[in-house]
Design brief:
With 152 residues, the protein is α/β, with parallel strands linked by helices. The chain has five helices and five strands, in the order βαβαβαβαβα. It has one domain: Response regulator (Rossmann fold, 3-Layer(aba) Sandwich), CATH 3.40.50. β3, α3 and β4 form a beta-alpha-beta unit.
Length: 152
């Protein structure tokens, strides 16, 4: 299980890595661009195995492909439909926040990040992902017994 951090700023990547490691999260993958993230996630190769990503922190302001576009493209891949995506940016205007959620973001954190907020967000989103996985497993188990239902 890993947390994926996508941020074009070296300082931003170092902060994420240090704070998450300090919070006990050992499996953190830090990438510097959306293109690197697409490669890591094997987007565009649907037959490839999904990366074991449980949470994505995604910077908005990146060159070439911004976080809004990246979020939309990640959400288009069914393998990552349930992975929480938290947009991170210095932009705190209502329009940017709304756009993030329209693109499929689960949450939105403004920079500069506070360690306590980042760790609380990570914990909550990982718990959310775990609950979604449990729900999906229950639904899968129910579907196995569905043919045996009888209407009376």
């Amino acid at each position: 299980m890993s947390i994926l951090v996508i941020d074009d700023s070296e300082d931003g990547r170092e902060i994420f890595g240090a704070v998450l490691a300090g919070g006990g999260y050992r499996e953190v993958v830090v990438l510097d661009s959306a293109a690197a993230a697409f490669s890591y996630l094997a987007l565009g190769t649907p037959c490839a195995a999904a990366a074991d990503v449980k949470l994505i922190f995604l910077d908005v302001a990146m060159p070439s492909i911004d976080g809004f576009q990246a979020c939309t493209l990640i959400r288009c891949d069914s393998r990552y439909a349930d992975a929480p995506i938290v947009m991170t940016t210095a932009l705190d205007d209502l329009q940017s926040v709304e756009h993030a959620f329209e693109c499929g973001a689960t949450d939105y954190l403004t920079k500069p990040l506070k360690a306590v907020d980042l760790l609380a967000c990570a914990r909550a989103k990982l718990n959310l992902h775990a609950e979604i996985e449990r729900r999906n497993a229950r639904e899968c188990n129910l579907m196995q017994y569905e043919p045996f239902r009888f209407a009376f």
